[in-house]
Amino acid sequence: MCRLINLAAxxxxxxxxxxxxxxxxxxxxxxxxxxKPWFDRLASGKGLCCSxxxxxxxQDVDWDTxxxxxxxxxxxxxxxxxxxxxxxxxxxxxxxxxxxxxxxYGNTQIRCFMPGAGT
Length: 119
Known about the structure:
16% of the residues are buried. The protein is globular. The strands form 3 sheets. Strands 3-7-8 form a 3-stranded antiparallel beta sheet, with no helix packed on it. It has a 3-stranded antiparallel beta sheet with strand order 4-5-6, with no helix packed on it. Mean pLDDT is 81; it is low at 1-25. The chain is α+β, with helices and mostly antiparallel strands. 23% of the residues lie in helices and 29% in strands. It has one domain. The protein has 2 helices and 8 strands.
């Protein structure tokens, strides 16, 4: 009986832990930005950008194109941006933005990429 209670407690703990990690991570910094509603609707072929990963702006030297594909430097390493991760909507923000995340194996993946406004 004690084992069953421990198993139930562990299951509840893990369920709570996992569901908390899946929630959007909007910390309210941009709540008053006029671009917030626009960012909240941005999506690529992989789904809504901000719903799954935190985006950050990318300096011009940290993204380019090679062999007809976008590339972005994240954490000092170049990644080819999958076609379905490119945001097709015009960039109203200005600088390029990337939404990386780590998959269940710890590998960096790109949820969304929006080229800089000058392209």
